[in-house]
Structures are given as C-alpha cells and as structure tokens.
Design brief:
This protein has six helices and 13 strands. It is an alpha+beta fold and 299 residues long. Strands 1, 2, 3, 4, 5, 6, 7, 8, 9, 10, 11, 12 and 13 form a 13-stranded antiparallel β-sheet that branches. The longest helix has 18 residues. The chain is globular and about 75 Å long.
Length: 299
C-alpha cells in the first residue's frame, strides 16, 4: 500500500475539521436502539433529527487497469485457448483497495460515507472448459482479497464534506501503549449469553464473529479513539481520551440467531443532554460498519 498517500489524505482531513466538545461528569444513560429486521443493517432512534439509518456496504474497488495489465490479460486468454484441454491459467497482483460504507439517513443532509483504504490482492483464474455441445470456452474466476491484518486508513464524509480521518489497527491488545491508555475498554467483561430457543450453536460461535480493533484519528477537530472489544461485543468511544459512549452492538446479521434470541443494540451515553447525539448515533454505526467489513477478507 502507498500508505504515505493515504496518511496525507487523513492529515488533510484533520486539518479541515473543526469543532469543540464540552466535558461532563453526569451519570451515564442507556439509550435503546431499535433494529427492525435481523440480517438488515437498519437502525431506528428516538431522536427528532435522526430517526433512521441504513448502512449500505460497498466491497473493494480496484484502480483502472494500466496498459501493461490489459496486455497481460490478453496474453493469458491466448495461452489458454492455444494450449487446449482442461487448463487453468492464473494471475495475481497486489492492490490498493477502496471500500465504502454509506450511512443513509432519514434526513439526507445527515448522510455519511466512510472510505476505507487498505492493501490486498486481485486474483484472476482462467480455465478452458468443455461445453455440453462439445465446444470449448474460457471461464474466468475473479477474486479480491483484503489484508486487514495490515490495518487501514479512512475518511469520514458528511455529504461529500470531510469531517474526520483515522487509522485502523488490528489486534490492539498487542500494542502496549493503546492497551495501557484504554485498559478499561479491554478488560470489559462480556455479559453471559443466553438462548431461549436452545440454539447451542449460537452460544458456541458468537465469540468468533466479533473482530477486535482500535481506531485513532480526529473527528470535527478533536482527537478520538474507538476500541472494539471482541469479548464483550461493546465499542468504547473517547474524545480527547475522555469516554463519551459505549455501544453494545447487535450480532444478528452475523450469526444464525433465532427470533427468540435476538437482542437490541444500545448506546450508553456519558452526557445524555448533549446536542451531539446525532453524531454519536452515527459514529456508533460507523463502528458497526467497520466490524462488519473486517469480517470479510475475500470477495
């Protein structure tokens, strides 16, 4: 990955952002979030300005082919056709992917877009197959791989206007500085999972589906950190190292959960009187998007 280029984008966004956040010592308040359907990334809030958000995910997009890459594709086609028989011919190239997460809101002016930049590969395999009528044709299989283990950088846009930039890091517990600074988020203990429907597979597999990561960057001019705890399935969000909220994410779009076992997500807000609730709702869903995107490394 040409990481320096992406970091420059992030730093540019940081320079453009601007706002301030008041500190508070109020007792936290838990706000329920309604998710109408399992498997659908739609969320509803009891908020005047922001009542509904749908997360739309767009997979990795590659850059336009260069002339040399186009020539290599033509050569591959010729080789497969000329050699005949059942033959596989493959090629793989390193890529710099761009993925998108779109937060489509009830109020169009509040729409967000999260752009993720990360390393990966593009693999194309051509196979000469025999058709039922005895003729032959070339079947092409394309696969895209994302290397999440190498991290990513990202930009948050509000109706195409940059409002934040960040770096995403996997396995944050291994980083002593991150772990020490946000230890409370990492030692957060999971709630006991129960299954009314007696779906034991759900109990056994739930921990495997929630990735753990840290996001560090700036949002509207302030430093922020997001810690995704894979054990407790909660996201901890800080502004200037001060905890703002904890998001208990849903998992019913990730696991084969039966209706009786579904639970609604919730947001524990440190300052429920803040006028930043629409921002916090959307940032919580940014964390949901990131968790969902990281789960898939092959397209």
């Amino acid at each position: 990955m040409k990481i320096s280029l992406k970091l420059m984008i992030v730093f540019l966004v940081i320079g453009l952002a601007g706002s301030a956040y008041a500190q508070t010592s109020e007792e936290p308040v838990t706000i329920g979030i309604f998710k109408p359907k399992k498997g659908r990334l739609e969320y509803r809030f009891n908020n005047t300005d922001l009542s509904k958000v749908f997360i739309k995910m767009v997979g990795p997009q590659k850059k336009t082919y260069t002339g040399g890459e186009m020539a290599q594709d033509v050569i591959n086609d010729v080789l497969v056709q000329a050699l005949g028989g059942i033959l596989s011919s493959g090629s793989s190239r390193d890529m710099e992917w761009e993925l998108k997460g779109k937060l489509v809101c009830n109020n169009e002016a509040m729409n967000w877009e999260v752009l993720l930049f990360c390393e990966g590969e593009f693999e194309k395999e051509k196979e000469l197959i025999k058709n039922d009528d005895g003729s032959t044709s070339v079947q092409t299989t394309k696969r895209k791989f994302v290397h999440w283990d190498k991290g990513a950088t990202g930009v948050i846009l509000e109706n195409e206007v940059p409002i934040g930039g960040f770096g995403l890091f996997m396995n944050p517990r291994a980083d002593s500085l991150i772990y020490t600074t946000y230890k409370e988020a990492f030692i957060d203990q999971p709630e006991q999972i129960k299954t009314t429907s007696k779906n034991n597979y759900y109990i056994e597999s739930i921990d495997e589906y929630i990735p753990e990561y840290a996001v560090l960057g700036k949002f509207r001019g302030e430093q922020f950190t997001l810690i995704a705890n894979g054990d407790s399935r909660r996201m901890w969000f800080y502004i200037n190292n001060k905890l703002q909220w904890i998001f208990k994410t849903d998992v019913d779009n990730l696991l084969p959960i039966r209706k009786k076992d579904r639970f609604m997500p919730s947001l524990q807000i440190q300052d429920s009187s803040t006028d930043l609730l629409p921002d916090w709702f959307r940032m919580a869903l940014v964390s949901k998007y990131l968790s969902s995107a990281i789960l898939q490394d092959e397209y």
